[in-house]
């Protein structure tokens, strides 16, 4: 367990450094309602149409694509259309709750097990900009790094509440074992 926490801390620091670096070199920086290029096609993450111009995204998230198969995000305590304290009842409204790392990849039982063991316990569907269909094979595997202590007790699944502490949030809406079938 200690070794797992040590590795998680090292990965977290590396991600934090990459966020700072990416933020400095990316022309657009972190954006809400961003479109990702996956396999040469444009996709977004399903959510509320509360981004610029009605762009759809997961509430409270901003993103930057960090290469062809990765994304880095910031998860704030803000809900759809600016709903206050939507994700956490005891963290300040609008506060940065998590740094998020995502990998665009397929879902298989073997990959799900491997990703979950590394903290990628939640995946999100990718929706085609062109026709609104789900990606035929890929999802984005997400690892959330909590920045402080708070109750994660809101959002779309309050029944999956947990007490967050700094580091990898292995309890974050764990859907990794649910097969993806678009």
In short:
The chain has helices at 2-25, 109-117; strands spanning 36-38, 41-45, 61-65, 70-76, 96-106, 122-128, 134-146, 150-152, 162-164, 167-168. With 182 residues, the protein is an alpha+beta fold.
Distance between the termini: 35 Å
The total strand number stands at: 10
Oligomer: single chain
Give the overall silhouette: globular
Mean pLDDT across residues: 89
Question: How can the largest sheet be summarized?
Answer: 8 strands, antiparallel
Tally of distinct domains: 1
- Beta-strand content: 25-35%
Radius of gyration: 16 Å
What string, H for helix and E for strand, traces the elements in order? HEEEEEHEEEEE
Q: Share of helix among residues? A: 10-25%
Question: What are the low-pLDDT stretches, counting only 5+ consecutive residues below 50?
Answer: 15-27
Structural class: alpha+beta
Features:
8-stranded antiparallel β-sheet, alpha+beta, 2 helices
Write the layout of secondary structure elements.
Blueprint: H1 2-25, E1 36-38, E2 41-45, E3 61-65, E4 70-76, E5 96-106, H2 109-117, E6 122-128, E7 134-146, E8 150-152, E9 162-164, E10 167-168
Antiparallel strand pairs: 1-2, 2-6, 3-4, 4-5, 5-7, 6-7, 7-10, 8-9
Please describe what this structure looks like:
The structure is a single chain. By secondary structure, this protein is an alpha+beta fold. The protein has one domain. The chain is 18% helix and 32% strand. It contains 2 helices and 10 strands. The protein has helices at residues 2-25, 109-117, and strands at residues 36-38, 41-45, 61-65, 70-76, 96-106, 122-128, 134-146, 150-152, 162-164, 167-168. The strands form 2 sheets. Strands 1, 2, 3, 4, 5, 6, 7 and 10 form an 8-stranded antiparallel sheet that branches. It has a two-stranded antiparallel ribbon with strand order 8-9. Strand 3 (61-65) and strand 4 (70-76) form a beta hairpin. It starts with a helix and ends in a 14-residue tail after the last strand.
